[in-house]
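Protocol step 4 of 6.
Sequence for tRNA-uridine aminocarboxypropyltransferase (Pontibacterium sinense) entered exactly as in the expression construct, tag removed. Do not edit the line below.
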Amino acid sequence: MTTETEHPRRPFLARGSNVIRCEQCQMPAKACICDFQVNAQAQARFWLLTHRKELYKPTNTGRLIVDTIRDSEVFPWSRTEPDTQFLDQLHDPEFDPYIVFPEGEGYEERMVEFEHKPGRKPVFIILDGTWRQARRIFRQSEYLKDVPVIQPQTQRKTRYNLRKPNEEHHLCTAEVAAVMLAQMGDQASADLLDAYFDVFNAHYYASRRSRVVEGVDDAKALLQQAISQCEPR
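Step 5 output, structure tokens:
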């Protein structure tokens, strides 16, 4: 069952704060996508370390991972007071964690390729925020210094049209997760997450402009077929 670590709620006060939203998917009620949530048993799970400024944004795509990939979790990031459950799991030998982050100077020795380890569950830790926030999380989290780092291998350009990235190759959180699933050989789960992201993207974009949702019939069909075959939440 997919879970999300509890954290205090606060009102969303930015643009769109007066929109009536679905309590589950946080989409505008008229654009709810709950009917397309898949409880997929992927070959890996995800732990999202989410910047506080992203926790309450309806356009955050990290929650799409939790909605789709079973046993994935969200943890609020703190430099000095990390979540105790996150730390416990990070040091649990049951798990095989990797931080998903591009290669760079100063941590070359930590860069690895994915390798299946018998008896251990693969976990991809995604630093959930803007690129600037993600770099800060990576550099300032001393408790992550011993965790190996894996780089997404992709030439994809972002399909996310709700925010404008600095560069086309800067993928959003959900897109990065799909890339990592494909990279480890779990293309089926990657396709489901990509499909759910496309549905989210299209529904949100259409609701902002009071337009009809278009272009995601195939994605919806794939998700509905998977839902019929998955265990209920």
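Step 6, annotate. Confidence is low (pLDDT under 50) at residues 1-6, 11-15.
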